[in-house]
Specification:
The complex is a heterodimer of chains A (about 260) and B (about 270). Chain A is an alpha/beta fold. Chain A contains eight helices and ten strands. In chain A, helix 2 crosses helix 3, helix 2 runs parallel beside helix 4 and helix 4 packs parallel to helix 5. With about 270 residues, chain B is mainly alpha-helical. Chain B has two domains: about 35 residues; about 210 residues, MetI-like (MetI-like fold, Orthogonal Bundle). Helices cover about 75% and strands about 0% of the residues of chain B. Chain B is globular, with a radius of gyration of 23 Å. The two termini of chain B are about 25 Å apart. The chains are: A alpha/beta (about 260), B mainly alpha (about 270). Chain B: Keywords: Cell membrane, Membrane, Transmembrane, Transmembrane helix, Transport.
């Protein structure tokens, strides 16, 4: 039985059909890149996985159980914008995820528990390259830094799956490349199941172990909303690339740095 | 260079800010001098010395009848009413606004109610307040509360709706329940907005305070102004108005400074 099972899922808003008859199985630890034209339901699909929307018809199972119908800590999310809380410092943005589940009444921890949460958050922030900015507010960070923070915030919950909705869409190409490297490293360390919506086909090919293309196969020119999109291509991407990456990562640092400068 | 592209430098800006005040002052002094030259008994535009005498009489000498300094008593009485009214309105408005703006089930009942209540002219129900709460402090404070709470509540409700849905979802994926979500995400983001709403409501609050004091009171800045009006005592009224303006301006400035100091992350506070 696969980790995520999508069973004949339809989604429509009014008489606008967005997704039709979606059938999909995703194994644990896969990195799925969701691509397709805008308005073809990739983000809708992601929102259904997140629990923000319910399928009109059909069912999504997580580990054989129906998906919880509202967002919860089992699913982490990074949006393109508004992913981090503007009123908390970088450190508190991440520590919040440790405080909230343990303090259902006050929403905050005190004393030793608080210090431990902050310590744990600081370690993760160090890992994503934000160790120097713990006390800053998100508005003082660049776009790339904010997304690093959003990823750290999602990872501190140790979610079962990580959902990314065009997380790097607003970033410069150079920064985007750094983020790809970071995301791949984190994915290899945690073996998380990742689903990522992207507009950028090459991004999907670089990162994914599986590429899902959403597209409309049926068109009715008199009723543009009559048919929805489905998954037209389901491409397993060569895993040897990731094997290579792992092998390179295992090389001693002075060798890899020499390779990079070459 | 086009007018739209010309910006004043620092010293220019200060001079330009002072200019209209200086012009008003000069116009007043000239008018006052002209009228007093014609008729030394004129009460309409008192001279600076006459006003200084009045201030000295009201603020720095004991009232012969009560043995108190009326100006400071009036100020204390008014500020107390204003502070109580603002504090109650802020707390009630914040709670109602958050309930209506972030919990759709509550908003469904509260929003239409708030909209209708905010349309009631508060002064029109002042008699009701006097009948229900009596003629003492409570009814005056209640007028301020009833006058500005709906405005604050509706503003907070609107701001609560404007919090991006992404943030609320994110907080849920971080393990928040409804209560902790409001406590740690919604409330802190609305507090700076509350201070701004208070700042905007200050004008109305003063209006309701003066109105309530004018109608039924035995002290207060508004009471004094309406009392001495009977004697055409412009030499008292004008300094009182200037004092009220100064107090209101200082409160406005204080709230602005507080917003910036307490919520450094808040971008709307930087303007």
């Amino acid at each position: 039985m696969s980790f995520i099972q999508v069973r004949k899922v339809w989604q429509q808003y009014g008489d606008q059909t967005v997704l039709e008859n979606l059938r999909l199985d995703i194994a644990e630890g896969e990195f799925c890149a969701l691509v397709g034209a805008s308005g073809c339901g990739k983000s809708t699909f992601l929102r259904m996985l997140l629990g923000q929307e319910r399928p009109h018809k059909g069912q999504i199972l997580l580990d054989g159980q129906p998906l919880v119908a509202e967002p919860d800590p089992s699913r982490g999310i990074v949006f393109q914008r508004y992913s981090v809380l503007p009123h908390l410092s970088v450190l508190d943005n991440v520590a919040l995820g440790l405080e909230l589940p343990r303090a259902p009444l006050l929403g905050r921890l005190f004393g030793r528990a608080k210090a431990e949460a902050r310590e744990q958050a600081a370690q993760l922030l160090q890992r994503v390259g934000l160790g120097h900015a713990l006390d800053k507010y998100p508005s003082q960070l660049s776009g790339g830094m904010q997304q690093r923070l959003a990823i750290a915030q999602a990872l501190i919950m140790k979610p079962r799956m990580l959902l990314l909705d065009e997380p790097f869409g607003a970033l410069d190409p150079g920064i985007r490349k750094d983020m790809h490297a970071l995301l791949l490293e984190l994915w290899q360390e945690t073996r998380l199941t990742v689903l990522m919506v992207t507009h950028d086909l090459s991004e999907g090919f670089t990162l994914g172990t599986r590429l899902l293309v959403f597209d409309k196969v049926r068109h009715d020119p008199h009723a543009p909303g009559a048919y929805g999109a489905r998954i037209t291509y389901d491409i397993p991407l060569n895993l040897d690339r990731h094997a290579t990456r792992e092998a390179v990562a295992a090389l001693p640092a002075h060798v890899t740095s020499a390779l990079k400068t070459a | 260079m086009r007018l739209i592209n010309q910006k004043p430098g620092r010293s220019w800006r200060i001079s330009l800010a002072m200019l209209p005040f200086a012009l008003l002052l000069i116009a007043y002094l000239a008018g006052s001098a002209a009228r007093l030259a014609e008729n030394p008994q004129d009460k309409l535009l008192p001279s600076v010395t006459q006003m200084a005498d009045a201030v000295d009489r009201m603020a720095f000498s004991e009232d012969p009848r009560s043995g108190r300094y009326l100006f400071w008593d009036d100020t204390a009485a008014s500020l107390k009413r204003l502070a109580m009214g603002l504090a109650i309105a802020a707390v009630v408005g914040l709670c109602l606004g958050i309930l209506a703006g972030s919990l759709p089930l509550f908003g469904a009942s509260l929003s239409p109610l708030l909209t209708v209540i905010s349309m009631i002219p508060p002064l029109a129900i002042l008699p009701v307040l006097f009948i229900v709460f009596g003629l003492d402090e409570l009814s005056k404070v209640m007028l301020i509360v009833l006058g500005i709470t709906p405005v604050i509540a509706r503003d907070i409700e609107q701001r609560a709706r404007e919090i991006p849905a992404e943030l609320l979802i994110k907080a849920q994926t971080l393990g928040a329940n409804t209560w902790t979500l409001i406590l740690r995400v919604v409330l802190p983001q609305l507090l700076p907005r509350l201070l701004i709403a208070l700042q905007l409501a200050l004008g109305s609050a003063w209006l309701f305070l003066i109105a309530a004091e004018a109608i039924a009171s035995t002290d207060g800045l508004g009471y004094r102004i309406f009392l001495v009006r009977r004697y055409l005592a412009m030499d008292v009224i004008l300094p009182y108005v200037a004092w009220i303006t100064l107090l209101a301006w200082l409160m406005d400035l204080g709230l602005k400074r507080l917003t910036r100091a307490a919520f450094p992350w808040y971008e709307g506070g930087r303007t």
